[in-house]
Amino acid sequence: MNEIPIQVPIPIPPSPCLKCGACCAAFKVCIQESEIDNIDGGYIPEGMTIKVSALSMVMKGTDRKSPRCVALSGGIGVNAKCSIYEKRPNVCRNFIMSCENGMPNDMCDRARARYGLIAFSAW
């Protein structure tokens, strides 16, 4: 009888972006009021946001000279993690790791450099 060889799935290595967090501690994270969970369909915890003007809201901590999002936990480049990853703002969902899909992202590279991390484009 011919045995079918068992194929062991090759694990996909986790994205280095997932433990980086440099972008979460380098830029202002602007959000739309419609993303806040006190509005029907919103998902970002209201307590993690701050209104900085009549038309502008940001994630707490990112309105400072040395920003660090209130949702960020852990150390930059070591074990950083977004505590609301599934409910993160659209701007975060749309932020692309540099060289993902072969496209550079200068903002990602600058954020990493701010913390002494090698640009993903250099990997």
If you average the pLDDT, what whole number results?
89
For the sheet with most strands, the description reads: 3 strands, antiparallel
Shape: globular
Q: Classify the helix fraction into a percent range.
A: 10-25%
List keywords for this structure.
123 residues; alpha+beta; three-stranded antiparallel sheet; two-stranded antiparallel sheet; 12% strand; globular
Short description:
With 123 residues, the protein is an alpha+beta fold. It is 14% helix and 12% strand. The chain has a 3-stranded antiparallel beta sheet, with no helix packed on it.
What does this structure look like?
With 123 residues, this protein is α+β, with helices and mostly antiparallel strands. The protein has a domain at 17-94. 14% of the residues lie in helices and 12% in strands. The chain has three helices and five strands, in the order H-E-E-E-E-E-H-H. A hairpin with a 7-residue loop joins strand 4 and strand 5. It starts with 16 loop residues before the first helix and ends in a 9-residue tail after the last helix.
Which helices and strands, and how do they pair?
Blueprint: H1 17-20, E1 30-31, E2 49-53, E3 56-59, E4 72-73, E5 81-82, H2 90-93, H3 106-114
Antiparallel strand pairs: 1-3, 2-3, 4-5
